């Protein structure tokens, strides 16, 4: 059985003391061991987050990383740097990275390889624009993002992959995919993985939904058969909201 996952993507929010306060609040909460709970603070606070959560079952993810091992890449962070502070999880391909920072399919493929070479687990994000959905192209767009980033992997590597379907039109907009739209896409994603690999691999992959998940809509979305939890932006910044979402998983 796939475990549920609720991951909070903090994006470029929270300074050091706000990070401390939010983690302290989250540490006081009790979670079902059936749910993996992840938080993703900014690079500057990852080491602090790792130290603060060492005795808890909160996991810490980076929001991005560079594909290269080391070298003249000003402002960048490598997989081995993350590893050296105990961070074994990384979000790759978030739509904001794709849109604003040149995270192309090709660049992401390199990042996926680098993360796997360092034995890291990856939350791989993808999703269509509103115009793709309006022109009924959303399945093709999602298929091409997944196949470009991940379909060269061998079956074994997939044990390190968590997928996150995030329709761009739903991110930070307050507009959410309906539970039916999420289920339809998640089932489609599982079907293309089954076709490329096999059914047991497709059944084992966790597929998260992301895009304006809130306490009010989380359980309807998470109760869909192929939805294994969520990647949460805005609502992950408030402990009470994040907790309500975790409890909906
Ligand atoms: P949102 O962000 O929950 O604020 O829409 C989701 C995400 O970007 O992962």
Characterization of the model:
- By secondary structure, this protein is of the alpha/beta class.
- It has one domain (4-68, 75-248): Aldolase class I (TIM Barrel).
- The protein has helices at residues 16-27, 46-52, 79-84, 95-100, 105-117, 130-134, 138-150, 179-196, 199-204, 215-222, 239-248, and strands at residues 4-9, 35-40, 58-62, 89-92, 121-126, 161-165, 206-210, 229-232.
- An eight-stranded parallel beta barrel has the order 1-2-3-4-5-6-7-8, surrounded by six helices.
- Helix 3 links the parallel strand 3 (58-62) and strand 4 (89-92).
- Helix 5 (105-117) packs across helix 7.
- The mean pLDDT is 97.
- The site of 2-phosphoglycolic acid has 13 residues, from strand 8.
- 2-phosphoglycolic acid binds at residues 9, 166, 171-172, 210-213, 231-235.
- What's the alpha carbon Rg, rounded to whole Å? 17 Å
Helix fraction? 40-55%
- End-to-end Cα distance, whole Å, is 14 Å
**Structure summary, number of beta strands:** 8
Strand arrangement, major sheet:
1-2-3-4-5-6-7-8
Could you give the order of the helices and strands? EHEHEHEHHEHHEHHEHEH
Task: Provide the residue-averaged pLDDT.
Answer: 97
What's the total helix number?
Answer: 11
CATH architecture: Alpha-Beta Barrel
The tally of structural domains comes to 1
Which regions contain 5 or more consecutive residues with pLDDT less than 50?
none
CATH structural class: Alpha Beta
Which small compounds were modeled alongside the protein?
A: 2-phosphoglycolic acid
Under CATH, the homologous superfamily reads Aldolase class I
CATH topology: TIM Barrel
Principal-axis shape equals globular
Percent strand equals: 15-25%
Derived from helix and strand composition plus strand pairing, the structural class reads alpha/beta
